[in-house]
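note to self: dont lose this again. the chain is below, predicted strucutre after it. 169 aa total, dont forget to put it in the shared folder this time
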Amino acid sequence: MAEEQNEIPAAAAEQPATGARFQLQKLYVKDVSFEVPGAPQVFQEEGAAEIKLNLAQRVNNVGEGLYEVVLSVTVTATSKDKTAYLAEVHQAGLFGINGLEEAQLQAALNTLCPHSLFPYAARTITGLVADGGFPPLVLQPINFDHVYQQRLQEAQMQQAAGDIEAGNA
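---
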């Protein structure tokens, strides 16, 4: 068999690639918490707990084209108006993003980044709940595109309402 060699001219190797770049550079848990305020009595109660999921996100620009995105996932389980457990994780990632216009950058930070982080946060929450002695909890996938579009629409409606109020003043 003949060996095949692909040589790249030195000048071409030194030229930066053009176009958009999206890269998850580091994944980490920034903070985690699990509380069972009513233990051990909570384990003696009958019936299923009501589960509430709360999501939040924070974006920090940490350098040229480098962003830390922190997805906070909080699960609160209540039974008979008492908190059975509270599980919270702040899943973070460092994302290298270049070559995008501002609107595209904001969309990537608010959709692609949390979409990348959510499975890790969900796995951590699931483990905390199971290790806490509660029945398995499976968090359903989140459509971050839809969440982002809703936030954009709400911001536009608030801006329009503010413009109307400013016009009446």
